[in-house]
Amino acid sequence: MSEYLPLAVGHMIGLGAVGSCLGVGFLASKYVEASARQPELMEPLQTKVFLLVGVLDGAFIIATGIGLWFATANPFRG
Fold first, then answer.
1. Which of 5, 42, 57, 64 is catalytic?
2. Per-residue pLDDT tens for 43-74?
3. Which domain holds residue 39?
4. Active-site residue 57, yes or no?
5. Is the pTM of this model over 0.90?
């Protein structure tokens, strides 16, 4: 069972990175689109965008930390 651990860790980190990058990209494109349509909402939306980018990156960093923890400590070793 532990021979699949590097594959699982790679998937945790890789898929987390892909998801985070896609989320930040879509969020940024929608922010630019919304601020082009209504420039007066640019500042209130900017704080929300930065908050959401932090949440998206936080999820990726947590997945990376758990993956590296499994890779080094290997709690599933028999």
1. 57
2. 999 999 999 999 988 988 998 898 888 888 86
3. 2-73
4. yes
5. no
